[in-house]
Predict the structure.
Amino acid sequence: MDNKVVVLKFGGNTLANKEKILLAVDLIKSRIAAGLHPVIVASANGNMTDILLDNAFSLADNPDKRELDMLITTGERISVALLSIALRARGVHSVSLTGSQIGLVTTSQHNGADILALKSDRLFKEISAGNIPIVAGFQGIGENKEITTLKRGGSDVSAVFLASQLGGGSVEMIKDVTGVYNKDPNKFPDAEKLDLIDFDVMYKLAMDGANVLHPDAVKLAKEKNVAIKIVYYKTGHVGTVIK
């Protein structure tokens, strides 16, 4: 694809209610107005995944992992459908897609699969047709044709992988924080925002508990040479770049 394609990944907290979904629509439209063609990866709204898991564990002490994958992947499907509905209502041609629909093939392991390949041209066809793909993160289809999920936080991994396949060279992680700080700004008033971070430094921060990015996403971004931009959901401004 050409360099006008940009992957935007929306975290669950940025899609938690109607107002935030409409902010997401505005941000996406701003990228389109700038001459870009966004490809969206979305997490489940708010705490939807936890609600679904609570329901499962209220029925069984050890729910079957296949059935859990069938259950919790509905959270992302809700997100992508609602976001696409909102975009279409505001004149943007969009299409919601599951991991299996775009051919995101993973290992056959349930509740923690690894991405293997993108084995479909569905995304490329939608982009060529002028549509904005809204892709469900955190999920794919196993080599055995079963629905699978990645590790928790795996939507970050989905977004980095798709950015590497689409050739944009970077991915925008839309977050409810203004960037990455040298320490927790909620606990330390003197915390300083870091404008630029090396992959290795970000990986260590993520492994040490920083919740901004999934460590597997940072590792994959370094491997695929995909820069990660942390973008504040209210303004659309880039706060930190990891490369």
Remarks:
- Residues 5-242 form a domain with the Carbamate kinase fold (CATH 3.40.1160.10).
